[in-house]
């Protein structure tokens, strides 16, 4: 695919480094190119502080060397629609920003630069960190976080253990087994020589990056430990640091609520199949959603549905179980527990999450606007009945799972086999599996 660059496309390069950290990815400046053909025409740079004026990235020298930083520096990530004459910036409140990514400067594909926390949450978090140490509002966030009791324990640790993440707010870490945490360390892409379950090769800053990401939003970690290349329904991870991440671009499910009946049936069928894979998989992890919305799932250009936002995913290890020390959560709360929300939020016990939880949420909130009123009678009545039963929280697990299975059976023949569904075409012409 050719790069989708506008007449004044932009690149990013490193800007000033200061000892303040974690508002996001890196301190950068914005550059403009003189034409859409940078290989043929000399560059004319007009630089200013992209980080300071747009993303407030002037507090992040600890991100230097991370994958997101390198991709910006080497101009492997470019934005095409922000600049005009006179030079302008995009709005700073959006949850994500479209861009193009290339690792060879020839073929480009769409990606998203996503906020892991809203701008308002980020501002509150900064003030909260400074206030925790009775420091001025413009304190060195990195310096304060380094002095915390939790991080001092991380510095001494050779292995990431459940006690080191107790009290962190992510549902991903509500029930952490040692097997799951070993997978986090072994798959963590932001360190050299990844592959070991021990953190001997982690620098102090590597440990702070990982701890901060787990505390703010575990979405980038989930993309790394359950990669799409291994069959998991998650987009490709391209880099993250602080409060920003880059991943393969998808269109949110909400954009398809007005889709044609055959496309709506296909997306609903895929969504139910995704939830089934989260409940039952070869690794014996049970992944469940604590909440969903119309932006939780996304669709690639080939029609394939993926999890777009994994921040609300919890993980229970059915093979190893969960740590027994669940009662110590209150004692483990600290500033890392309260970076984005109040410190009083209570998450349910690991042992009270029903298998039906994600199905109930999806059948209540996402499938009705996608499927209602799309099909002739009596098919529509069958769909509506199965949806009501699938979304009934008072029903026992087997009945909800049975209703979801019946809904899949109804939807299967409503899907068509044509080039619009490139993720399964032309295979669907030769096998009922697709």
From TrEMBL:
Membrane-crossing ranges are none
Coiled-coil intervals, chain numbering:
none
* Pfam family, any one: PIP49_C
| Record domain FAM69 protein-kinase: where | 211-391
Gene Ontology cellular component terms for the protein in this record:
extracellular region
Record flagged with keyword Secreted: yes
Signal peptide (UniProt feature, chain positions):
1-34
| Annotated compartments | Secreted
Q: Which UniProt keywords apply?
A: Secreted, Signal
User: Where on the tree of life does the source sit, at the highest rank?
Assistant: Eukaryota
Claim: Signal is one of the keywords in the record: yes
Q: What is its main location?
A: secreted
Q: Which PANTHER family match?
A: DIVERGENT PROTEIN KINASE DOMAIN 2B, GH11358P
What does the sequence similarity comment in the record state about its family? Belongs to the DIPK family.
Q: What is this protein called?
A: Deleted in autism-related protein 1 isoform X1
């Amino acid at each position: 695919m050719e790069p989708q660059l506008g007449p004044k496309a932009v690149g990013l390069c490193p800007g000033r480094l200061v000892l303040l950290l974690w508002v996001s990815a890196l301190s950068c400046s914005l550059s403009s190119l003189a034409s859409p053909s940078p290989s043929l025409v000399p560059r004319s740079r007009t630089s200013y502080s992209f980080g300071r004026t747009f993303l407030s990235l002037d507090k992040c020298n600890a991100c230097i060397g991370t994958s997101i930083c390198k991709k910006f520096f080497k101009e492997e990530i470019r934005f095409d629609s922000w600049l005009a004459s006179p030079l302008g910036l995009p709005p700073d409140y959006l949850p994500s920003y479209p861009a193009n990514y290339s690792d060879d400067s020839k073929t480009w594909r769409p990606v998203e630069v996503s906020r892991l926390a809203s701008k308002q949450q980020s501002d509150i978090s900064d003030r909260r960190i400074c206030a925790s140490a009775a420091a001025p509002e413009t304190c060195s966030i990195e310096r304060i976080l380094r002095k915390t009791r939790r991080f001092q324990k991380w510095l001494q640790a050779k292995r990431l253990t459940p006690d080191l993440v107790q009290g962190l707010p992510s549902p991903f870490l509500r029930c952490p087994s040692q097997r799951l945490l070993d997978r986090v360390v072994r798959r963590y892409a932001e360190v050299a020589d990844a592959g070991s379950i021990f953190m001997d090769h982690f620098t102090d800053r590597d440990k702070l990056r990982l701890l901060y990401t787990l505390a703010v939003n575990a979405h980038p970690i989930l993309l790394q430990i359950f990669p799409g290349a291994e069959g998991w329904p998650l987009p490709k991870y391209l880099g993250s640091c602080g409060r920003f991440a880059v991943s393969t671009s998808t269109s949110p499910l909400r954009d398809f609520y007005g889709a044609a009946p055959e496309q709506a049936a296909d997306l609903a069928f895929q969504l139910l199949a995704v939830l089934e894979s989260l409940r039952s998989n070869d690794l014996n992890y049970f992944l469940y959603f604590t909440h969903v919305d119309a932006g939780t799932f996304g669709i690639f250009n080939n029609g394939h549905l993926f999890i777009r936002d994994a921040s609300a995913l919890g993980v229970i290890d059915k093979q190893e179980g969960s740590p027994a020390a669940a009662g110590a959560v209150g004692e483990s709360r600290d500033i890392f527990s309260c970076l984005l929300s109040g410190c009083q939020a209570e998450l349910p016990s690991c042992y009270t999450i029903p298998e039906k939880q994600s199905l109930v949420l999806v059948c209540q909130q996402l499938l009705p606007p996608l499927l209602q009123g799309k099909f002739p009678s009596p098919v529509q009545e069958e769909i509506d009945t199965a949806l009501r039963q699938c979304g009934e929280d008072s029903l026992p697990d087997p009945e909800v799972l049975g209703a979801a299975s019946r809904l899949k059976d109804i939807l299967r023949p409503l899907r068509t086999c044509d080039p619009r569904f490139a993720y399964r075409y032309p295979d669907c012409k030769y096998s009922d599996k697709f």
